[in-house]
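Extended Data, record NAD(P)-binding protein
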Amino acid sequence: MAQSSSNELAGKIALVTGASRGIGAAICEVLAGKGANLILNYTSESSTQRTQGLASRIQSQYGVKAIVVQADMGTTDGPGHIIEQAVKSFADLGLEKADSFQLDILINNAGVSVNLPIEECHAEDFAFQYNINVRGPLLLMKAAIDYLPHDRSGRIVNLSSVSASLGFVGQSVYGGTKAALEAMTRTWARELAPRATVNAVNPGPVATDMVSIVIPWPSSKANSRSMVVQRFRRLPIECARS
Protein backbone atom coordinates (compact mmCIF):
# COMPACT_ATOMS: atom_id res chain seq x y z
CA MET A 1 0.00 0.00 0.00
CA ALA A 2 1.46 3.32 -1.08
CA GLN A 3 1.37 6.20 1.33
CA SER A 4 0.24 9.72 0.50
CA SER A 5 2.77 11.83 -1.38
CA SER A 6 2.43 14.61 1.21
CA ASN A 7 1.26 14.66 4.81
CA GLU A 8 0.03 18.24 5.01
CA LEU A 9 -3.60 17.11 5.23
CA ALA A 10 -3.02 13.96 7.27
CA GLY A 11 -5.94 13.25 9.58
CA LYS A 12 -8.18 15.79 7.90
CA ILE A 13 -11.60 14.85 6.50
CA ALA A 14 -12.69 16.27 3.16
CA LEU A 15 -16.06 16.08 1.43
CA VAL A 16 -16.30 16.41 -2.35
CA THR A 17 -19.69 16.52 -4.07
CA GLY A 18 -19.97 15.32 -7.64
CA ALA A 19 -16.91 13.14 -7.06
CA SER A 20 -17.55 10.41 -9.61
CA ARG A 21 -15.82 12.06 -12.56
CA GLY A 22 -14.21 15.18 -13.98
CA ILE A 23 -13.05 17.93 -11.65
CA GLY A 24 -14.56 16.23 -8.59
CA ALA A 25 -12.63 13.00 -9.12
CA ALA A 26 -9.43 14.93 -9.78
CA ILE A 27 -9.87 16.95 -6.57
CA CYS A 28 -10.29 13.70 -4.63
CA GLU A 29 -7.03 12.48 -6.14
CA VAL A 30 -5.15 15.62 -5.10
CA LEU A 31 -6.58 15.69 -1.56
CA ALA A 32 -5.85 11.99 -1.02
CA GLY A 33 -2.31 12.58 -2.27
CA LYS A 34 -1.90 15.08 0.56
CA GLY A 35 -3.17 12.64 3.18
CA ALA A 36 -6.84 13.64 3.57
CA ASN A 37 -9.54 11.10 4.30
CA LEU A 38 -12.41 11.49 1.86
CA ILE A 39 -16.17 11.47 1.52
CA LEU A 40 -17.05 10.97 -2.13
CA ASN A 41 -20.58 12.00 -3.09
CA TYR A 42 -22.28 11.01 -6.33
CA THR A 43 -25.86 11.01 -7.61
CA SER A 44 -26.88 8.40 -10.15
CA GLU A 45 -26.84 4.61 -10.08
CA SER A 46 -24.83 4.65 -13.28
CA SER A 47 -21.96 6.25 -11.35
CA THR A 48 -21.92 3.73 -8.48
CA GLN A 49 -19.26 1.41 -9.86
CA ARG A 50 -17.08 4.29 -11.05
CA THR A 51 -17.18 6.08 -7.67
CA GLN A 52 -16.61 2.94 -5.63
CA GLY A 53 -13.69 2.06 -7.88
CA LEU A 54 -12.19 5.51 -7.37
CA ALA A 55 -12.57 5.22 -3.59
CA SER A 56 -10.93 1.78 -3.56
CA ARG A 57 -8.02 2.92 -5.68
CA ILE A 58 -7.48 6.04 -3.57
CA GLN A 59 -7.40 3.98 -0.37
CA SER A 60 -4.94 1.52 -1.85
CA GLN A 61 -2.70 4.08 -3.50
CA TYR A 62 -2.53 6.71 -0.78
CA GLY A 63 -3.29 4.81 2.43
CA VAL A 64 -6.23 7.05 3.37
CA LYS A 65 -9.86 6.23 4.12
CA ALA A 66 -12.49 6.99 1.49
CA ILE A 67 -16.21 6.46 1.89
CA VAL A 68 -18.86 6.76 -0.80
CA VAL A 69 -22.27 8.36 -0.29
CA GLN A 70 -24.97 8.37 -2.94
CA ALA A 71 -27.26 11.38 -2.61
CA ASP A 72 -28.95 13.81 -4.96
CA MET A 73 -27.85 17.38 -4.23
CA GLY A 74 -30.99 18.60 -6.00
CA THR A 75 -33.37 17.16 -3.40
CA THR A 76 -34.24 18.73 -0.08
CA ASP A 77 -32.94 15.81 1.98
CA GLY A 78 -29.94 14.76 -0.15
CA PRO A 79 -27.39 17.20 1.31
CA GLY A 80 -28.31 16.33 4.89
CA HIS A 81 -28.09 12.63 4.07
CA ILE A 82 -24.47 13.07 2.96
CA ILE A 83 -23.46 14.52 6.31
CA GLU A 84 -25.45 11.96 8.30
CA GLN A 85 -23.82 9.07 6.44
CA ALA A 86 -20.37 10.61 6.73
CA VAL A 87 -20.65 10.96 10.51
CA LYS A 88 -21.94 7.40 10.86
CA SER A 89 -19.37 5.86 8.50
CA PHE A 90 -16.33 7.46 10.13
CA ALA A 91 -17.65 6.45 13.56
CA ASP A 92 -18.08 2.87 12.30
CA LEU A 93 -14.51 2.93 11.01
CA GLY A 94 -13.33 3.99 14.45
CA LEU A 95 -11.67 7.11 13.05
CA GLU A 96 -14.05 9.60 14.63
CA LYS A 97 -16.63 9.46 17.38
CA ALA A 98 -20.03 10.65 16.25
CA ASP A 99 -19.97 13.45 18.80
CA SER A 100 -16.47 14.59 17.78
CA PHE A 101 -16.65 14.30 14.00
CA GLN A 102 -15.00 17.25 12.27
CA LEU A 103 -15.36 18.17 8.61
CA ASP A 104 -12.20 20.06 7.68
CA ILE A 105 -12.67 20.57 3.96
CA LEU A 106 -15.86 20.92 1.92
CA ILE A 107 -15.77 21.14 -1.88
CA ASN A 108 -19.09 22.09 -3.50
CA ASN A 109 -18.34 20.71 -6.93
CA ALA A 110 -21.59 19.04 -8.04
CA GLY A 111 -23.39 21.02 -10.70
CA VAL A 112 -25.46 20.85 -13.86
CA SER A 113 -25.70 23.03 -16.95
CA VAL A 114 -28.47 23.23 -19.52
CA ASN A 115 -28.09 25.70 -22.37
CA LEU A 116 -31.34 27.24 -23.60
CA PRO A 117 -32.11 30.48 -25.43
CA ILE A 118 -34.46 32.85 -23.64
CA GLU A 119 -37.54 31.80 -25.59
CA GLU A 120 -37.02 28.15 -24.61
CA CYS A 121 -36.40 28.69 -20.89
CA HIS A 122 -39.03 27.15 -18.62
CA ALA A 123 -39.81 26.85 -14.93
CA GLU A 124 -38.90 23.17 -14.69
CA ASP A 125 -35.38 23.72 -16.00
CA PHE A 126 -34.95 26.80 -13.79
CA ALA A 127 -35.85 24.71 -10.73
CA PHE A 128 -33.63 21.81 -11.84
CA GLN A 129 -30.51 23.93 -12.18
CA TYR A 130 -31.10 26.17 -9.16
CA ASN A 131 -31.95 23.20 -6.90
CA ILE A 132 -28.63 21.50 -7.64
CA ASN A 133 -26.32 24.46 -8.17
CA VAL A 134 -27.65 26.83 -5.48
CA ARG A 135 -30.06 25.25 -3.01
CA GLY A 136 -27.95 22.08 -2.76
CA PRO A 137 -24.76 23.81 -1.56
CA LEU A 138 -26.79 25.95 0.86
CA LEU A 139 -28.50 22.92 2.44
CA LEU A 140 -25.20 21.05 2.56
CA MET A 141 -23.57 23.98 4.33
CA LYS A 142 -26.47 24.09 6.78
CA ALA A 143 -26.11 20.37 7.52
CA ALA A 144 -22.33 20.59 7.86
CA ILE A 145 -22.05 23.72 9.96
CA ASP A 146 -22.11 21.96 13.33
CA TYR A 147 -19.12 19.87 12.27
CA LEU A 148 -16.81 22.62 11.03
CA PRO A 149 -13.62 23.46 12.96
CA HIS A 150 -13.70 26.26 15.51
CA ASP A 151 -10.17 27.55 14.90
CA ARG A 152 -10.56 28.96 11.37
CA SER A 153 -8.73 25.96 9.95
CA GLY A 154 -11.73 24.86 7.86
CA ARG A 155 -11.65 25.23 4.10
CA ILE A 156 -14.75 25.59 1.92
CA VAL A 157 -14.42 25.88 -1.85
CA ASN A 158 -17.35 26.45 -4.20
CA LEU A 159 -16.90 25.61 -7.87
CA SER A 160 -18.32 28.51 -9.83
CA SER A 161 -17.98 29.36 -13.51
CA VAL A 162 -16.84 32.17 -15.76
CA SER A 163 -20.43 32.11 -17.01
CA ALA A 164 -21.39 34.03 -13.84
CA SER A 165 -19.72 37.14 -15.20
CA LEU A 166 -19.06 36.71 -18.94
CA GLY A 167 -22.63 36.16 -20.15
CA PHE A 168 -22.57 33.24 -22.58
CA VAL A 169 -25.44 32.79 -25.02
CA GLY A 170 -27.96 30.22 -23.78
CA GLN A 171 -26.84 30.34 -20.16
CA SER A 172 -29.39 32.68 -18.59
CA VAL A 173 -30.18 30.09 -15.95
CA TYR A 174 -26.80 28.41 -15.52
CA GLY A 175 -24.94 31.72 -15.34
CA GLY A 176 -27.49 32.92 -12.80
CA THR A 177 -26.94 29.88 -10.60
CA LYS A 178 -23.20 30.45 -10.51
CA ALA A 179 -23.62 34.16 -9.75
CA ALA A 180 -25.89 33.14 -6.86
CA LEU A 181 -23.28 30.67 -5.64
CA GLU A 182 -20.67 33.42 -5.65
CA ALA A 183 -23.01 35.69 -3.68
CA MET A 184 -23.45 32.94 -1.08
CA THR A 185 -19.69 32.48 -0.99
CA ARG A 186 -19.19 36.10 0.06
CA THR A 187 -21.91 35.78 2.70
CA TRP A 188 -20.47 32.55 4.09
CA ALA A 189 -16.99 34.06 4.21
CA ARG A 190 -18.34 36.62 6.67
CA GLU A 191 -20.64 34.35 8.66
CA LEU A 192 -18.08 31.57 9.02
CA ALA A 193 -14.98 33.73 9.42
CA PRO A 194 -14.14 32.40 12.93
CA ARG A 195 -14.27 28.82 11.66
CA ALA A 196 -13.24 28.56 8.02
CA THR A 197 -12.14 30.40 4.94
CA VAL A 198 -14.65 30.32 2.09
CA ASN A 199 -13.73 30.85 -1.55
CA ALA A 200 -15.15 30.32 -5.02
CA VAL A 201 -13.07 29.36 -8.04
CA ASN A 202 -13.84 29.85 -11.74
CA PRO A 203 -11.80 27.23 -13.59
CA GLY A 204 -12.91 28.20 -17.10
CA PRO A 205 -13.31 25.52 -19.79
CA VAL A 206 -12.24 22.11 -18.47
CA ALA A 207 -12.33 18.84 -20.40
CA THR A 208 -15.18 17.14 -18.50
CA ASP A 209 -18.32 15.26 -19.51
CA MET A 210 -20.43 18.34 -18.75
CA VAL A 211 -18.33 20.49 -21.06
CA SER A 212 -18.47 18.01 -23.91
CA ILE A 213 -19.63 20.80 -26.19
CA VAL A 214 -18.09 24.23 -26.58
CA ILE A 215 -19.46 27.29 -24.85
CA PRO A 216 -22.46 28.55 -26.88
CA TRP A 217 -21.70 31.32 -29.33
CA PRO A 218 -23.55 32.94 -32.25
CA SER A 219 -23.32 30.74 -35.32
CA SER A 220 -21.26 33.27 -37.28
CA LYS A 221 -18.47 32.85 -34.74
CA ALA A 222 -18.99 29.19 -33.88
CA ASN A 223 -15.94 27.77 -35.61
CA SER A 224 -13.45 30.34 -34.32
CA ARG A 225 -14.93 30.16 -30.81
CA SER A 226 -14.66 26.37 -30.90
CA MET A 227 -10.96 26.58 -31.66
CA VAL A 228 -10.38 29.08 -28.83
CA VAL A 229 -12.21 26.92 -26.28
CA GLN A 230 -10.48 23.75 -27.43
CA ARG A 231 -7.09 25.48 -27.22
CA PHE A 232 -7.51 26.71 -23.66
CA ARG A 233 -9.55 23.86 -22.17
CA ARG A 234 -7.67 22.29 -19.27
CA LEU A 235 -7.70 18.75 -17.93
CA PRO A 236 -9.54 18.14 -14.64
CA ILE A 237 -6.33 17.23 -12.81
CA GLU A 238 -4.74 20.53 -13.90
CA CYS A 239 -7.73 22.38 -12.47
CA ALA A 240 -7.64 20.39 -9.22
CA ARG A 241 -3.94 21.04 -8.65
CA SER A 242 -4.38 24.79 -9.04
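Summary. The beta strands are 13-16, 37-42, 66-70, 105-108, 154-159, 196-201.
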